[in-house]
Amino acid sequence: MRDDFLMHTDAIDASKKNSNEPIYVKDFSEYGQILHIHFSPYEWTKDVMLLAFEEKILFVHLSFENSISINKVYEFPHPRCSALAISPNSSLAVLPNQVIFATGSSDFKLRVYESDLEQNTLCRELSGHVSYINDVTFDPENLYMASASDDNTVKLWFTDGFRLKSTFHLNSPAMVVSWHRADSGKMLVAEKIGLIKFYNVDTETPILSLDFAKSLSSAHWAPSDSQILGTLQLGELLVWDLTKPCLPQQSTILFPENGGTIKFSPQGELVAAVNNLDGSLKVVHTVTQHQKLNVSLSLPSNVQWHYHYPIVCVGDDMKLCFWKVSTK
After folding, report:
1. Rounded to 5°, angle at Cα 214 from 201 and 224
2. How many domains does the chain have?
3. Rounded CA gap, 199 and 208, in Å?
């Protein structure tokens, strides 16, 4: 990936900067509706994406040589998917390739795939949840995997053999579970009732909690700063400073409807939010709260940012759409 890509898009797409027109669209109508997308959050696999459809998951590789292009590398048969996460142990820099990712499925099972993207693929099925799986994630050290479910639990799994380590019983559905790459000993759990707790992973005890008492649909730690957290609650974007956790630092009404997902940009200056009930993608500046992008969509998936570039991506029905968003 070349750093002149940003200069190139500035040159050829100056008229589209922060425009509602995407800089790139890829049609996946041969596979059907894009249900869920996942950009790798790790530098060594930063150009890798997973795309979930009704009956399969695509592993794709992106190239940014002067313009965006997508290479479909491998297909994995899979039932309807609700959550995706790639493992930090995945690598395309060695032969054979090693790709490890986890999914949440419509049958309430977790699946963990290990593949060389050629002939050898292992799929483990993990049972334990009894309702919809909202999120799945790996810790940065690849010691644990965690899953969040509508069954009011978060389950913590050892990555060594994917054995269940423990179950966290909650007061409402678990919407998000995550770690920050700069703070691997702390696990975030966000509940639908609006309660966010941070747990010490080793002792499994809560060490900090936030409660805005409004229904929560999404939460995301700013990749650039482990003290900054964003939540989406009843259509309101809240930005929290965890050094002063009594009240949110900022709030912005984004959607008239509940639901949706949010993601901070790589440098943490922008937050992207998508809501399939409202049918829109919005990007706002975290400090000025100025809206940088507002796009109407038909059937949006969740929203993702590239690891390095200020490029936001959403599946819109059967198309994968990319926008470049300037902070200026």
Report:
1. 50
2. 1
3. 7
